[in-house]
């Protein structure tokens, strides 16, 4: 859960299997320690509602036979809590700490430069056409390969390579663009409509 959540909010470096495994093991151990400390605190305050860990260690077979439901539910609960903590920690955005250029892609640097703003993206394609729209999502991989893609949302404007005037695709809600076909990206930061209304209301 930590790795999946982190992919949504941070540039993703393709680490070696050993390094990725070590990171996940460290995160898992840290979260397990936190969860066990919480369990210990609950047991110290309300021992009657928690499994008897001492007896579970001394007499595992006998204790599980008579208290298997409590042990099962507490195990599921603690595992669920650790999973939820992993998802929360992995999804935390550290926007105040900008990643170094070496640890992020050009897409990440441009699309995350102005948090809280709408991002309008124009794509010059290799066949001479041009597509523009509001950024909906993009691949966060740090590897700048042609296998990445980005998603633009309406209003979508399209100009074919052999025409001069763009056309607004009124029936199109979004478009997926492969990085392999893109030559240049033109990025514009725009205020959200709510921010524009607030700014207009503040003017005398």
TrEMBL record:
Keywords: Membrane, Transmembrane, Transmembrane helix
Stretches that traverse the bilayer: 21-46, 71-92
InterPro entries in alphabetical order: DUF6338
Protein name: Uncharacterized protein
């Amino acid at each position: 859960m930590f790795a999946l959540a982190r992919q949504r909010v941070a540039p993703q470096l393709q680490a070696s299997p050993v390094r990725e495994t070590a990171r996940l093991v460290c995160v898992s151990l840290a979260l397990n320690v936190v969860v066990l400390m919480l369990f210990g605190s609950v047991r110290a305050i309300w021992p009657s509602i928690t499994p008897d860990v001492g007896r579970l260690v001394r007499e595992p077979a006998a204790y599980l036979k008579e208290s298997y439901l409590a042990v099962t539910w507490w195990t599921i609960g603690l595992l669920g809590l650790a999973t939820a903590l992993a998802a929360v920690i992995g999804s935390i955005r550290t926007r105040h700490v900008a990643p170094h250029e070496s640890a992020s892609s050009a897409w990440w640097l441009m699309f995350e430069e102005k948090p809280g703003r709408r991002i309008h993206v124009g794509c010059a394609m290799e066949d001479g056409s041009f597509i523009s729209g509001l950024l909906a999502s993009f691949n966060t991989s740090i590897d700048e390969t042609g296998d990445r893609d980005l998603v633009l949302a309406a209003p979508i404007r399209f100009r074919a390579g052999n025409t001069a005037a763009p056309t607004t695709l009124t029936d199109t809600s979004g478009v997926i663009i492969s990085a392999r076909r893109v030559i240049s990206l033109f990025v514009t930061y725009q205020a959200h409509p709510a921010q524009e209304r607030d700014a207009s209301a503040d003017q005398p």
